Amino acid sequence: MPQNFLSKIWTGFFSWYRDNYKLNLYITAGLFVWQLVHLYWLTTNVVGFRIFGYELWEVGRLGDIFIALVDYTEIPALILASLFYIHELQKGFNWKSTLYLVLLNSQWLHLFWITDEIVVEQITGTALVALPLWLSWIAILIDYLELPVIYDTIKKSIQSLRKKD
Q: Which domain holds residue 131?
């Protein structure tokens, strides 16, 4: 494909993005609100189990399915939030957006390297293949790197709702 064609697609997409900025921001923040449910589960069910020896929030079989569905919203949230911060950087370079892009995209390492299922198995001692426990803690830490981005997108959404433009 000619570079001119890709450039037109890129420019056209971000022109559309700019015209629909608020909608894109609200969808991004909404998807990240779901991630708070997942992080709460991670804290109470996985980390809590390791620290206290039992789950602090037993969700049951149906709850496990719900948490898995919530977790699947992470992929569109990561893509949309990355686009959001790329858009912010197109307006002008800033370290905050750059940092948030790095924090966001570290999630891919966790999603494809040590999944939540592997972490749970390692923490509970039910893993078929033993990995060093510190790898699971790194994967958990990577999950928490979303928190600043979640806060920022929710804050920007609230600020955007208050504006009359």
A: 7-33+73-162
